[in-house]
């Protein structure tokens, strides 16, 4: 029986559907996201994020200290950002590829004690 990959079957430009597919993959224990497991935010949180001078909404799936891994609800992108004391993302990098965002998150987490 073929593996039913929620991210592969999501061929959409709808960022909400993409975030939902990522959440489903995480809930099913997808091995590609094993590095996120210790840092998962349950349930994922919708927060504000500053991008290019504008405020957008993102869904935070993983967090380590003040670093967050997220999916945008307004663009088909993933990102890694710095959260402030109120839980908003105040500085971030955005990626169209989830693999690059995961690498960036793992790199930042590896640098933090």
Can you walk through the features of this model?
The protein is 27% helix and 37% strand. The chain is of the alpha+beta class and 113 residues long. It has one domain. The protein has a five-stranded antiparallel beta sheet with strand order 1-2-3-4-5. 24% of the residues are buried. The mean pLDDT is 82.
Strand order of the largest sheet: 1-2-3-4-5
Give the overall form.
globular
Order of helices and strands: HHEEEEEH
Radius of gyration: 13 Å
Average the pLDDT over all residues and give the rounded result.
82
Structural class: alpha+beta
- Main beta-sheet strand count, sense and barrel state: 5 strands, antiparallel
Poorly predicted parts:
none
User: How much of the sequence is in beta strands?
Assistant: 35-45%
Tally of extended strands? Answer: 5
Report how far the terminal alpha carbons are from each other.
42 Å
Assembly of the depicted chains: single chain
User: What is the percent of helical residues?
Assistant: 25-40%
Number of domains: 1
